[in-house]
Amino acid sequence: MKKAHLLGIVIIAVAVGIIISTAGDASTYVSFQEAATMAANGRTEKIHVVGELQKDPQGHFVGMQYQPELDPNFFTFSLVDDQGKAQQVIYHNPMPQDFEKSEKIVIIGGYQNDVFVADKILMKCPSKYQDDEFREVPQATAPQAQL
Predict the structure, then answer these.
(1) Max Cα–Cα distance, the chain, nearest Å
(2) Does pTM surpass 0.90?
(3) Residue 109, number of CB atoms within 10 A of its CB
(4) Handedness of CA 33, 39, 41, 44 (dihedral sign)
(5) What are the beta bridge partners of residue 121?
(6) What stretch or stretches form a coiled coil here (predicted)?
(7) pLDDT (tens digit, 9 = 90+) per residue, 62-116?
(8) CA 52 – CA 55 distance, rounded (Å)
């Protein structure tokens, strides 16, 4: 067998190994109810939950606590999943920058003693290119042709 063929087989084997190892990290989004059921059944893999920060009727955040002067690596907040269930989340890292401005939040972690402990937080922030209102763009007028 030629060295080129052997090298090609090795490269393909490495690529297949990488794909298989990363496929185990892929997961779908679940609700807090599904995540709690998975944890109760002994599943220990990381769980992805998507939601929004819980707010009171006045628009203030509920359950958010971060005191960096006491413990900079303890941040807790309340997240409401897409099913409407609110859950307290603990994050053992500093509060992410612009956390309060995010539209949607994805937390990756699992349940420990009936509390969701996040290992990672992903945020979808509002785009600076989107306006709350659509603006009417003035039409450009074509110059009049002179005859």
Answers:
(1) 84
(2) no
(3) 20
(4) positive
(5) 107
(6) none
(7) 889 999 999 999 999 999 998 999 999 999 999 998 888 888 999 999 888 888 9
(8) 9
Identify the residue whose tokens are 């819980």: 54
Q: CATH classification of 28-124, choosing from 3.40.190.120, 2.60.410.10, 1.10.260.40, 2.40.50.140? A: 2.40.50.140
Tokens 């053992």 label which residue?
92
Place of tokens 């907040």: 77
